[in-house]
């Protein structure tokens, strides 16, 4: 797998991850540990609930998104996040759904990084530069 550096990136570049198939066992395990709601934990109760079946926690889908993003871009220094401006879960993710991410570079400068360095230079990552991304999770 190719390692990427900041200098390799271009505004407008788009990427596509491999597919990740969500399993019922993973949905339930994540929910047991981090989001213990019946529609994530119990297929029988979930079938009678608002979603008419077991669904993955949105936080689990966010974790899958991060995994696919990191594997796809494979930055030499890692993918350091300064925050998320918008996060939505428009559709439930169910067992056997196949997910992938499609990141796009929208900017190669970061005003957020400059603010962090001015406010707390001892805490800033020395010499780091961060691209701004637009990314969507696709459920096929």
Share of β-strand residues: 5-15%
Strand and helix order: EHHHHEHE
Structural class: alpha+beta
CATH class division = Alpha Beta
Principal-axis shape: elongated
Largest beta sheet: what is the strand line-up? 1-2-3
The total count of strands amounts to 3
Provide the residue-averaged pLDDT.
Answer: 82
Task: Describe the structure concisely.
With 140 residues, the chain is α+β, with helices and mostly antiparallel strands. It has helices at residues 24-34, 38-41, 43-48, 58-73, 111-119, and strands at 20-21, 98-107, 132-139.
Structural commentary:
This protein is α+β, with helices and mostly antiparallel strands. The protein has one domain (6-139): Thiol Ester Dehydrase, Chain A, CATH 3.10.129. The protein is 33% helix and 14% strand. The protein has 5 helices and 3 strands. The protein has helices at residues 24-34, 38-41, 43-48, 58-73, 111-119; strands spanning 20-21, 98-107, 132-139. It has a 3-stranded antiparallel sheet. Mean pLDDT is 82; it is low at 120-129.
Give the SSE layout:
Layout: E1 20-21, H1 24-34, H2 38-41, H3 43-48, H4 58-73, E2 98-107, H5 111-119, E3 132-139
Give the tags.
140 residues; 3-stranded antiparallel sheet; elongated; Thiol Ester Dehydrase, Chain A; alpha+beta
